[in-house]
Amino acid sequence: MDRYADRFGSDLDREIIVLRKKDQDDLTSIMPKVELISSSSKNEMSLSEFMEAMNDEDFLLRVSEKTGVSVDKIDELDLAAMEEFFIKSDTDNSGTLDFDEFVKGIIDSFRSRDEDFSHFFTVVDGLLGELPEEKVNSFIKSDDFEMFKSIGEEPKSSQRQTRSDFFKMVNELLADLPDQVMEQFTSSQDFELYKTIADRYGD
Predict the structure, then answer these.
(1) Which of 75, 147, 170, 178 is most buried, most CB within 10 Å of its CB?
(2) pTM for this one?
(3) Domain boundaries, the chain
(4) Dihedral of alpha carbons 132, 134, 137, 142, sign
(5) Fold observed for domain 27-110
(6) pLDDT tens for each residue of 163-202
C-alpha cells in the first residue's frame, strides 16, 4: 500500500476500498490474448493453441494476476500434464477450451484455499469501491474497517473464524451495491468464487 500512500496521502484509507481499475481488472482482461492465439470465431483454443499460450510468459503472468494462482504453480505443467488439464477443463467435450473453461480449469486445478480467500479479498476490495459514497464513508469510520485493513495486510494468513467474520460483514455490505454492479458481479467468474467462500465460511 506504500505506493498509494505517496499518491493519495491522507486519503489512503478511502483508496484502499475504491475500485482501482488499472490494478483490479476483472478476469476478462485476459481475453485479448485468447482472441489473439485462436482462429476460432468463438474465441476458443485448440490443444495446440493452448500449448502455445502456456509457453507465453506474459500470458502466464496475466493469468496469475487475475486468478490468484502463482506462475510457478501454472508453470509446473509438463506436456503430458497440459494435455490432461486441457481434457479435464474441456467440460463440454468440444475439443477446444473457451475462455470460461480455461479460467475455471486454472482455478480448480491450482488455487489453494488460502489463495481463494486472498483473491476473494481482492474482488471484495474492488466491489466495495462501487458502494454509494455515504456507505463507503460510514464503513471507513466503523470498527469493521479495522478488521478489513488487518485482513488486507496478509489475507492468506487469516484464520478460519476471521474469514467467517469477514464474509458475514462483506455479505451485508454488498447488499447495497448498485443494481448494475450487482448484475455484472453475479454473472462473472468472481461470483462463483463468492459462492465457494460462502460455502466454506458463511455458516
Answers:
(1) 170
(2) 0.58
(3) 27-110, 113-201
(4) negative
(5) Recoverin; domain 1 (1.10.238)
(6) 999 999 999 999 999 999 999 999 887 888 899 899 999 8
